[in-house]
Write a structure and sequence with these properties.
elongated; three-stranded antiparallel sheet; about 5% helix; 1 helix; 3 strands; Response regulator
Length: about 70
């Protein structure tokens, strides 16, 4: 099952949109995202490549933490 990181995948059984249930760390460089279908209760786990420099967690990159002087 492939999906973009910006969209919810379609359920392969009932063709409804699946909801993101959880994000777990996967192997190095990947997240495992679990999607659940509220219609037929099917779950799918999809791996997404993670680029730490292009993450949506901008708080880490734009935070106040600075290296020591």
């Amino acid at each position: 099952m492939t999906a973009s990181t910006k969209e919810r995948p379609m359920c392969p059984v009932c063709k409804h949109r699946m909801a993101l249930a959880r994000i777990s760390p996967g192997p190095r460089g990947f997240d495992e995202r679990t999607f659940e279908c509220s219609t037929c209760e099917r779950t799918e786990v999809v791996r997404f490549a993670v680029d730490p420099m292009q993450t949506d967690a901008v708080g880490w990159l734009a935070g106040e933490l600075k290296p020591p002087n």
